[in-house]
Structures are given as structure tokens and as C-alpha cells.
Amino acid sequence: MKRIVYREWKLAPQRYWGLLAILGIIAAIGGLASWYMEHHGHWVTGMTNQVIWGTPHVFAVFLIVAASGALNIASIGTVFGRKIYQPLGRLSSLLAVALLIGGLLVLVLDLGRPDRLIVAMTTYNFRSIFAWNIFLYTGFILLVIAYLASMMDRKLRCYYKPFGFFAFIWRLILTTGTGSIFGFIVARQAYDTAILAPLFIAMSFLYGLAIFLLVLLFAADQDQRPVGQAILNRLKNLLGIFAATVLFFVLIYFITKLYKAKNYELVYFYLLGGGHYTLIFWLGWILLGLLAPLGMVFHPVLGQERRWIVTASFLVILGGLASIYVIIIGGQAFPMSIFPGKTVLTSDFYGSIAAYAPSLPELLLGIGGFATALLITAVGIRVLQFLPESLADEEIDPHFSVKT
Amino acid sequence: MKMKDKVQPDRRAFLSTAAMTATALAAGVVLRTVAQAEPRSEAADDSVRYGMLIDTNRCAEGCDACVQACNRENGLDLQEKPEGAEDGKWALQKAQWIRKVQVQDNLTGKRTNLPLMCQHCEHPPCVDVCPTGASFKRADGIVLVDRHICIGCRYCMMACPYKARSFIHQVVEKKLTQTPRGKGCVESCNLCVHRRDNGIESTACADACAAEGHQAILFGDLKDPNSPLVKALERIASRQLREDLALNTGVRYAGV
Amino acid sequence: MANALVRGCLISASLAWALSAQAAGGSFVVPGSKAASEKSCVEPTAFMRRNHMEVIEHQRDETVHSGIRATKHSLAGCIQCHVSRDSNGTPIPVDRPDQFCGACHRYMAVRPDCFGCHATVPTSAALPRQPQGETN
Q1: Least CB-packed of A193, A390, B113, C46 within 10 Å?
Q2: A42 to B151: CB separation less than 8 angstroms, yes or no
Q3: Per-residue model confidence as pLDDT tens digits over A102-112
């Protein structure tokens, strides 16, 4: 194996600036959408006093979850000592930070009073998992930057292992924290279970990797840098394993829920009778988001083709958004049981499935967060040495041997 | 048991006695209001815990006097539908502190009416989850939002088992001095906190219910063994909503 | 940090300027308000000019968290005394740029967000509010 050479992204200027302009415009539209929401108030969105968190939260949680997952590739290289992943560590770390910033931006811009962000940074209630998350997020960004420095600066090389290890532990805690935002909500039946933490961790592995794969392949493609079959095979196999893991935890989730008779209606709601939530669950999350990609990456022929790996990654991301939608919006739409054994007759507020329709500004804000993350990544790989010159098998695979 | 027998020798006589005492009490309240209307100068402390008993047997179908009174008292009726908002959605977006609910028992078919509002839990989930500490429980048990540090994240609304909280979805033009209100913060029933601090003994909803002749809402101090509220709680079987969560709510319901 | 410093300097400079203007006889107290017929504010005038924000903000926490309402420092109290009335006796919002709080704040280029929530005119002081009480 040779020494890995990293180089800035050498895209032709028109192409590069064109890309930045597109991402910048999408991000700016997101910013405008949030300004519109803040200026008028949240009545212009689909959110109500019943469905309290809407599409912005779907995107924000997705990005935050994916952020910690994107770091996985670096962790596998550092913590588990897999040499072949090490050249990808830099991109993986950069993407993790970028996705987290994108997600947090969406979260903050959806606040009722974003102008009081300073309050959130200075006044804490330490009983709140939300307050802890503020530390987890800022800590994550700082830690990953330190980790990156240890990868990129020879003098800091000695910290590579400890930083990598610490960042790995931190990301596990971070995703647990994100899952717990929901897991600790005892009031709502769809949440109120510790399973949400490992489910979120599994989802983070999957979604982070899918985004990583797409960004890597796109960036390498644009710059004519080779990506060998060895690394590609490993990444796509990982994708499949993670998809299977998520599937497993979804199953566990429902089994746990079914254990209590009071949750029968909830399970029925998700799996059969929940209208479009059921549809999004089966079609969006399970079929397109998990089973289809599983089939593609493990298919003996298709699984070897790049475009199928790319398709699988895209589907994972779409399915990922669907999964968070089902969890966040569906979980709120399902009526809380305040009067067990009784039926609510008159009330347009209690006892029935709450209505919610995403509004355009919410959607644009969420997509803006995506664009911001990609913008940061695009600038990052352009100005700093994040991308390896070549990921061809003979460059990075320690087990490489010339096959005949 | 002995005590109770003395107070109330016969169960059947109880209802009429209760009605009478309640009426007398209501009158008393008015008198004391005049006599005691002095703003609080010492910090509220935990020698009292405010709460309510809602006797659903007395809560009338179709009556929303408590809701109307609350809306008036707390300026909720001053909210204006933003131009261009859809009616249906707006009904779910505007702030509302009390909602009337009718439920039917699946087994017996018995129908029950009740007002639902913030239950002023001893262990409020909304307070636990609030990242900035804007949601808090005052020493005297009232659960409130300090809207000067509320960032509008709505996590408290996610956590509330009663859906009792409202987010202000709109710019508010008209407001009362006693209940400021503005876009982007969360609020809910505060047991008429301005009345508490100004020496008025009752809440707007309880007064309105009494004025309708129903007396379904009894407000008082849960820590005072001689308060009519505690006496009533001793006499009438009541329960907490979502008892399973062990929140020890300050609002109790009889007949559900 | 640097921003805050610059802003602080600007404000003290403009405050000093405003104060000298005051010394020359100008006052932000508006005719027609109760304050116009009173001799002094709730604290010495010079102190209030500089420190009224701390005074109100301290009171705010006392009131919201401890319920203390027997005070001369309440925001409601400021408005009650400083609000002006038009010829019909209708109170004029205090944050209007030609009114007490509004005029000075505009002059000083500060924009407290308080009146996004707080009423700018006294609403019926009697508790509980009468259904037909002033609402604006």
C-alpha cells in the first residue's frame, strides 16, 4: 500500500462556481422561507397546537442523525483499525460537521424566537435532554474538528487515535441524545420507549453512510479520481448491513409496543389503519427505504454496478426522510390516550388523528438545510485537502494483489 | 371517617349541602375579594398549593361558560385570525387555555362532560424538558411559562400529556395589561396567576361556572386541610387524568 | 464582543448627548400623561434615565417567578403613569415614536421587544376585567 496523497477538489472554475451558486440559491431560498415564517408567525405553516413539530423538524432530525452517522467511516478506520477506510476519514469528518450545522440551522430557524438563541446558549435547565443536546452538538463539532486536525496535521498525529476514539464515543452519545428527545416523551404512545435510542443509532449509521457514498462518488467523479471496487464493495455491503439493522430495530420497536395491550391501537395505526402514515411507513420507509436498497446492494450482479449503488443510496435517503416523518409527524398525529376506556365524542382537539399537511415554506427551509450542508462540504473539499488523489484498489487496499 | 360523619351525616343530604355551601362560598369570595384585594408583596411560597376539583357530574353538556370566561379574562378572545388563514387550521393554531370535552364510556355508554386545561402537575413533564428553564413551577404549585426566556422550541408541548399548551402562531395586536401575549412563545392556563397575586380567591372559570349555577369547578388550596377544596376531595371520589404517569396533578376530576 | 463594546460606547455617547439636551430643559415626559402632573418618577429621574431597563427587568423576574406585585417598578405601572391621552381621553400607545418610551428609544436607536407582548396602553385596571373593558 502506498502513502495516500490528498488534494483539493480541482473542478473547473465554471463548474465549481456553478455548483456553489445552485447550492447557495437553494440555501438562500431556505433562509427566505424561514424569514417568511418568522415574520408572519407559524400560522403560515402546517403546524398547529396538535402537530407541534413539522417538516422542518423532520429535516433537522434527519440531518443531525445522518451527521453522526457520516462520521462512522472515519471511526471504522481509526477505532477499528481498518486501513482501507482511513483515506476516507477526512471527508467523513467534514461531512459530519457540515450535516450537523445544516440540521441545527433548520432547528434554530424554526424556533418561535430565533432572536433569543443567546438565551438558549446561556440559560440551561439540566433536567432537559434538549439542553444536554446543545452541549452534545457543540462538543461534537469541536471534537470532530480536533479529530480532523489530527488527521491533517503531522504534529498532531499522535492524537489521532485518542481523538478518533473519543469522537466515536461522543457520536454514540449524541445519537442516543437525539433519540431520547423522543424516547423521553412519556406522554405520547409512539415515543416513550428506550428502543428509540438504538433505533436512532442504527438509522444514523444508515443515513450517514448513504449521504457519504453519494458525496464521495459525486466528488470523485467530477474530478476523475478513481474509486476502486474494493472500497466500493465494502461501503455498499455496510449499507446493506445497516439497512438490515434498522429493519431489525423497527421490528423490535413494534414487538415492544405490542407487549402492552394499550398500544394495540398505536401499532394498528402505523401498520394498517393510519391512512397516509401507514402508506409512508410501508412504501416509503420499509419498501423503498430499506428492502429495495437491500436487494440492490446484495444482488450479485446489480450490486457490483455503481449506478445501482447510487440508486440504493438515494432510496435510503428518501426512505430516511420518510422514516423520520412517520416517527415525528405520525407520532404526534396519533391521539394521546387521556381517557382510557372511553371514546371522545365532542372535541375537535382530542381523540382523533390530528391533521397535518406540510407547507411550502417548511419544505423549503428543510431543503435549505440540506443545501447548506452540501455547500459547506463543497467549499471544504475545494480549499483543503480532504479528498484522496485516488481510491483505486492498488492505492488503498492493504490486501490488494494483482489478479489475473 | 368519624370526621366525615360529623360534617356530613347522610350521603343524600350531601349534594344539597354542597350546593349550598358552594353558593355561600361564592358569595364569600366576592366579599373577600373586596376586602383583600391587595397585591402580593412577599414571594409566593410552598405553604400553599393551588388546585381544582372538577365535578363532572355537574358539568353541563353544551355549556362553555368556563371557556368563555377564561378567554375574556386572559385576553384570548382578542386574538384575531390572520388574513388568509384557513378557518379549520386556525382553530387549531390559536391559543386556547381550556377546552370542553365530552367522553363516552365504552362499556356503560355513560357520557361525561369536562373542561380540560393545564393540570398543574407536581412533577410537570413540560418543566423537565424545557431547555432554558422558561417552563417552571412556581412555589405555590402553578405551572407557568416565563415568556422572557422562552425560545419557542415547543418541546414542552410535545411533552404535555394533556395537550394543554398553545403556541402563539401569529402576531398579536390586541392584548391586556394583565396577560401579555406575543408571537413565538408558548403559554397555557396559569390558574389566573394575576388573581392569585392580587388577593382574589377564585379563577375566572370557577366563577363563571358558579354563575351558571353548575359549580362544577372548585378552586382552592390543596395544602389547607380546612379549605373547601380539600374537604370536597375527602368527600367525593376523584382521580387524576393520566394517573399512570404519577404526575400528581393539581387538577382532579370526579366522575370520570 | 467587539460589537457589544462598540454598541455600548455609541449608546453612552448618545445618552450623554440626550442627557445634556435634557439638562437644557427638554423632557421626554409627554403632556397629558399622569407623569406630566407628577413631580417625580418612581426613582430619581437621573437614575431612571440610565437604569430604567434594569429596574424593569429586575421587577420582571420578581413578578413572574415570585408573584410580587406590590411594587412601583412594574412595567404596567410605567405605562399607567406615562401614557398620554388624546382629546377624547383615549390612551395613545407609549411605544409610538412620538410618545414617551417610543420617542426616547427612537432617539437612542434601541428597540426593546417588550411591546410585542405587553400592552402599550393600560387596559381596564379593575380585576377581573369587565367584558366591555378597554381592550386596546
Answers
A1: C46
A2: no
A3: 999 999 999 99
